[in-house]
Design brief:
This protein has helices spanning about 20, 40-50, 55-65, 75-85, 90-100, 105-115, 120-125, 130-145, 170-180, 185-190, 195-225, 265-280, 295-300, and strands at about 10, 15, 145-150, 165-170, 230-235, 240-250, 255-260, 285-290, 305-310. It has about 325 residues and is of the alpha/beta class.
């Protein structure tokens, strides 16, 4: 199936597919494969499919991003999952297992990462593997370009126990595959999609939110052109987890939160973020807040050089 996908060049972005993204036949063992960035994939997806809204773009991209199929944006997402993914299970499975070398341990750990909190120890627990086997699987996933790893940031906060790194999928579709398809393959092969429909419905919002958070990071990078961001990720320790943590070329530190609430964000969120940063001994210069549906007037009045506010409307700059 993937071998026959139309590979149109939407200059300057290309229409990617699983096998073209993972150019595994040309890799040197031990050297991670470089896949297109999430921003490149999002632009490709947006150009090819012309979503009706930015919210729809993010949601459908979280499932089909990187796959390369043309997606009917007027069709319901669950129907598209059936038609484009589940009905093509055999051919997609063949391509993915070529990338993963059909390694059962890697498959188990990838499924553990796909719906967990991204921390390695949580993924190992979900996969029911020990740390040594889990580390070996993650190393293979990174080598194949399937995963990337983010280590905890060092600061003066003292940790009694080592913190687990966080893991991310390079391609949204592959994350969807290992979250919902791979663990339920028996029913899918028999043509029974009910279990995957139920599981996806139960996890849909949190699943899409992760991609929204990752695209917020891309938006943040585009927003700091005068003082470019040189480091971006998240910050966490035993007690605190801050979605966005970045540094600029001039040394300024940025901290932010991402929300998908239908309500306008209130000042209390900023207060909590500041308290978390103080507890973690982070001296923050600029705070950034992302919320799909805007902010209270109180927060808008505080907007300035040290407080940036972003809504879903700002995502338009990602595809311009």
């Amino acid at each position: 199936m993937l071998q026959n996908i139309r590979n149109t060049d939407f200059s300057p972005y290309k229409n990617f597919s699983v096998k073209s993204l993972y150019n595994f036949t040309n890799t040197t063992k031990g050297t991670p494969i470089k896949t297109p960035s999430l921003l490149e994939q999002f632009r490709s997806f947006y150009t090819q499919n012309q979503p009706n809204t930015l919210e729809q773009a993010v949601e459908y991209f979280s499932v089909f991003g990187g796959l390369g199929f043309e997606v009917d944006m007027d069709e319901d997402l669950e129907i598209l999952i059936d038609d484009l993914i589940l009905d093509n299970y055999d051919s997609l499975h063949k391509d993915i297992t070529e990338v993963t070398e059909a390694d059962p341990l890697l498959h188990s750990v990838l499924s553990g990462v796909a719906l967990g909190d991204r921390r390695s120890h949580s993924a190992y627990k979900r996969a029911r593997v020990n740390g040594e086997d889990g580390d070996r699987a993650i190393a293979l996933g990174i080598e194949k370009g399937i995963l990337s790893k983010e280590s905890p940031k060092n600061n003066s906060y003292l940790q009694e126990t080592p913190l687990s790194p966080k893991l991310s999928f390079a391609i949204p579709f592959v994350r969807f595959w290992f979250a919902f398809v791979s663990p339920l393959f028996k029913g899918i092969k028999e043509g029974d999609y009910e279990e995957i429909h139920t599981k996806f419905a139960n996890h849909r919002q949190e699943f899409v939110t992760f991609i929204y958070e990752e695209l917020c990071k891309e938006l943040l990078k585009l927003s700091f052109k005068a003082d470019p961001i040189t480091e971006i990720g998240s910050f966490w320790n035993s007690d605190i987890d801050i979605e966005l943590y970045a540094k600029t070329a001039s040394g300024k530190k940025i901290a932010g939160i991402v929300r998908t609430s239908k309500q306008k964000m209130k000042k209390s969120e900023l207060t909590k973020l500041r308290e978390n940063c103080e507890s973690a001994n982070l001296n923050i210069d600029i705070f950034v807040l992302f919320n799909k549906n805007g902010f209270s007037n109180e927060l808008k009045n505080l907007k300035g050089e040290d407080l940036k506010l972003f809504t879903l409307k700002n995502f338009k700059s990602l595809v311009e």
